# Entry
Amino acid sequence: MIENCDTAIFSILSAMSEEDRKTFLEVINITRNFDQSYVYLEIGSDLGGSIIAPLFDSRCSTALSVDLRPMSQPDERGVDFDFPDNSSARMKHLLSDAGIPRGAMLKLRTYDTDISNLTISDLNQLSRLAFIDAEHTNRAVFRDFLKTRRFLHEDSIILFHDSQLIFDGLLNAEELLRDEGCAFFSFYLPDTIFGIAFGAMVHPFRHVFSNVAFDSEQCVARSRKALPQEIAAHAAVT
# Structure
């Protein structure tokens, strides 16, 4: 299912669209073909709707879930989103019910904390693929990016969900990398995923996505225009 980008593998409710799921599986395929025993790191796991795919993947040796597990958190749309019964225990129960074998569940490690509280010795390994899908504010996503980089191989990919909300934070991340002289390549991808590839992962990343990626300037301009409308819509409802 992963090799064929079959999105039916995502059997747990998540906020990812159908296009997001296809993009996510494409990136997993890039990663598993580059490293046949890769470590996956996820910041913000909620119910397990995205981490389910790496857990099913036989080439993923370890899946790390880092989630502070708040009952609610702010968002760039000007509202707080609630997460009732937000716990790693609930996520593990849903993953087991979704058919994750017991052996695959053993490679799942959960950390109910903020990524900034962890050290290299806590995780004890570097990740080839990371996915940031926690608090959707520009400040939080930039902070999560800074802290997550410590746990990445120099040849790696980092993905962000809901790029249409956190584009200013993503622009800051790109500017920081340019200032550092870091070798990277970034894309806005269908539907709302933003990805940055580093080192030797740049070539396969560009090869797979160069023809489907959105124009960065147009994507940001479109999101910047739409965001006030979303804020107004949420304000009208509340």
